[in-house]
Amino acid sequence: MDTPSAPLPNPEALKGDGLGCHSGRDAMLEAAAQAGKGGTLDQYAADYPKGPHDQPQSMCPAFGSLRVGLRMRRTQTILSGSACCVYGLTFTSHFYGARRSVGYVPFNSETLVTGKLFEDIRDAVHAQADPSKLDAIVVINLCVPTASGVPLQLLPKSIDGVRVIGIDVPGFGVPTHAEAKDVLAGAMLRYARSEVEAGPVAAPRTGRAQLPTVTLLGEVFPADPVGIGMMLEPMGLAAGPVVPTREWRELYQALDGVAVAALHPFYTASVREFEAAGRPVVGSAPVGHDGTEAWLQAIGTAAGVAQSKIDAAKNRMLPAIRGALAATPIKGRITLSGYEGSELLVARLLIESGADVRYVGSACPRTPWSDADRQWLEARGVHVQFRASLEQDLAAMHEFKPDLAIGTTPVVQAAKQRSTPALYFTNLISARPLMGPAGAGSLAAVINAAIGNKARFDAMKDFFGDTGEGYKSGVWQDVPQEHPEFREHTRRQVIKLIKRRKAEEMI
């Protein structure tokens, strides 16, 4: 049903010039607060606290929300932002396999500051709201529309039965793209919970489960829910849907679970919705022997399962996991970092496989649902760094001199320049089964093979030497010659400039 338009929350905020990305984080935060977005930004600051530095170096956070929307059936995603941002996000989404178009509402300075952009978005939503094709439309404000106060909350809640969800995902308010997944997942759960409270809702496509289900919170390898289901079966439980879900009606099933397994611990907004629905939330995940034992006990207790059944599940799964770990040992020192949220889980699995893990860095924040993993790792001498910066990841690699560095693209690049084998966490590590017996032996082959490539890196280093490094980088017809006198001249000029600026500050 259409909702009549309401007055803008702060008309005065639209009378000035529109802000661009060049304005800087502080200016855009201040503008967004003045434009009526203060409550939203305060909630983000509470849900996704930043670290000792500003925020981790990562891709545009909005990619997380965009990806969640694009992976859902019968869901249209529309972006509202600068054309350059929309181009980059659209390119990245298709690079990662999006199979549908991304909607875009363009704007200029005039439509932005006069409020016409909001009207254009509203018209676009009405034009797309076809109930025969869509269950939901997601509209995402990027940085500039958020800072300018484009009021997506005033969009109709539904049009001809098509749900409309408007969210703000500015780079200056949401730290990482992982947490942006939670922004949309939480908004969808809130909407779905209001529907459940209002009356009967659609059953899952595959029908209701015969056993009580455990909802899985966090994107995991496709085989992991199957393995988790096998671990839950002796307790009379089944694996429920994975949140973020692949279609709208799965949200109802997720809310209907007897417990929620926060496999990825940063879904703060989603947890809030599950707790509001009266569902207990359990942290960590069934990784390795110790992790699986603790997780089965916690899930069984939260779901009200008899201890005898919990013990039966342990007796069925733990020997198989112990055997898989023993059969596929990992030998070598490893530093690990990433931005997916599963870094601590992977580190636990590596340690139980025999690896010497010295450092774990995660771009995500510390939360109550990662405490069990943190405590387990720290008890084994591992330095755990939440909200890790690239500089901290690189410093750990230089300090601990690992046989293998697992990390983000720049960490992998830096490691290989030092002749240290390295693996990209997102594509080569997190995209593997990690849970239960299947996960116990999934990492050994790729890890041991990578460590075994050390001699190849040394051979290449010996062959190429320092070619292409420093002033020799690039393509040259002749061998470049260093000119230290030029560098010294520049250094003196910089020192003079710094002294001049300091003198001006004292005036």
Keywords:
507 residues; alpha/beta; five-stranded mixed beta sheet; five-stranded parallel beta sheet; 48% helix; globular; disordered N terminus
Q: How is the largest sheet built, in terms of strand order?
A: 2-1-3-5-4
- Please give the alpha-carbon distance between the first and last residues: 64 Å
How large is the count of helical segments?
21
- What's the rounded overall pLDDT mean? 89
Helix- and strand-based class? alpha/beta
For the secondary structure, the number of strands is 14
Strand fraction band? Answer: 5-15%
- Low-confidence sequence ranges: 1-18
Structure characterization notes:
- This protein is an alpha/beta fold.
- 48% of the residues lie in helices and 13% in strands.
- The protein has helices spanning 25-47, 62-70, 83-95, 109-114, 116-128, 143-147, 177-198, 223-232, 249-255, 268-276, 288-302, 307-327, 343-352, 371-378, 390-400, 409-417, 425-429, 436-440, 444-451, 454-464, 484-506, and strands at 75-80, 103-104, 136-141, 158-159, 162-168, 213-217, 238-243, 259-262, 281-282, 333-338, 356-362, 383-386, 404-407, 422-424.
- Helix 13 crosses helix 14 (371-378).
- The protein is globular, with a radius of gyration of 25 Å.
